[in-house]
Amino acid sequence: MTVLPIGSLAGAQASYEWPEDGFTKIPNWVYSDPDIYRKELEVFYYGDTWHYVGLTCEVPEIGSFRRSTIGERPVILVRHADDEFSVLENRCAHKGAQLCWENTGKVEDFTCPYHQWNYSLKGDLQGVPFLRGALGKGGMPRDFKKSEHGLKSLRIHNEGGAIWATFSDDAPSFEDYCGPDILAEVRHMLPGKPIELLGYTRQLIPSNWKTYLENLKDPYHATLLHSFYITFGLWRADNKSKCVPQERGHSVMVSHNEGKKTSDATSEMKRFRDDLEVLDKETITPRQEFNKKRVGGGWIFPSAYMGIQANTLKMRHLIPRGPNMHELVFTHYGFTDDDAELRRLRLKHANLLGPAGFVSMDDSEMLSQLQHGVGAYPHETSIVEMGGKEIEETDYMVSEVLIRSFYKFYREAMGL
User: Fold this and answer.
1) 312 falls within a domain
2) Which pTM was predicted?
3) Phi, psi at residue 99, to the nearest 5°?
4) In degrees rounded to 5, what are phi and psi of residue 182?
5) Burial of 143 from C-beta contacts in 10 A (0-12 / 13-18 / 19+)
6) What is the pLDDT of residues 127-152, one digit of tens each?
7) Is 383 exposed, middle or buried (0-12, 13-18, 19+ CB in 10 A)?
8) Could you give phi then psi for residue 6, rounded to 5 degrees?
9) What is the domain-level CATH number for residue 88?
10) Whole-angstrom distance, CA of residue 32 vs CA of residue 327
């Protein structure tokens, strides 16, 4: 048992203990303690991990840029040549001011608005005003070398049009970091065809970032909470499904869209409404394409989930904003060879998700209420024993196996 001295929530004399049960009982203090949060950033975001930054179609021309975030650190994705990209720290090497204030745009180079230090698209320092002073006075020391003061450039990997980055020189290759199952999910969603940007949604949710990560590892709640899913068959406990734990905090969770139906399990779904019909059947009737009614996808720990629901394709980017807040950005995309009808369906089915989505708005409110509960009782625990206490792959949804598997990894990585 690890006893962790923490005084930030319950007074200077408090100490928190991880429950004896290992990874079937989760202590509430992991969702609100600022010391834990800071260590998570160092271990999971600034350590030997890979992070989703953006899609190549978001920066279509040389000089096109997109602001992004890894943990709490702002970065810039920029196309600096025909098919070459950089991910740069979004902070001037002089005083640390952010260079890019707009989310997207196109530039010839980057200039800091504070003291006008100027950088190339690859981050090289090109110019410093008053380098030699003014009227023979001031200026930088003679041994100052511009070559030593560029923007930090991160290691990057382009996988099918998605750019991933890491701060670490010691992180494994992106392929090894993912492992074969997760890499297969990424390549299923991004098979190498040219992609096109369809749009964004973004929101702030007042809960710890791990609550959303758990939410996407929890098929059990979806078949109880989401009336829209269960009534119209988009995601249900009695559909064909599987949950596949992975190393390094990753996971695969998929199901099959079997449409509206009544089964022996329906009586357990209190929000199921057999009397409801959607007048616009397109809302719940996808056109069959490469996934063959398979929905869901893979979580690439710690910051991204990619999957398909109906005909909408999206990258979910999870950004921590303190112990009690996270930002969630959906980037919706399609393929350039989509016909007009499929493109229209991708946009229409995107209404399932996002801040006001038919489904996602349930999660946002639930996570907000959950944070109130766990934050006020840091010494209490939550139970994740649905489906047993093991961490083996399942072929059913009524399970918290992916959450258990995650916390086994989490404890080892955090040394708790």
Assistant:
1) yes
2) 0.91
3) -80, -50
4) -70, -40
5) exposed
6) 999 999 999 899 999 999 999 999 99
7) exposed
8) -140, 125
9) 2.102.10.10
10) 16
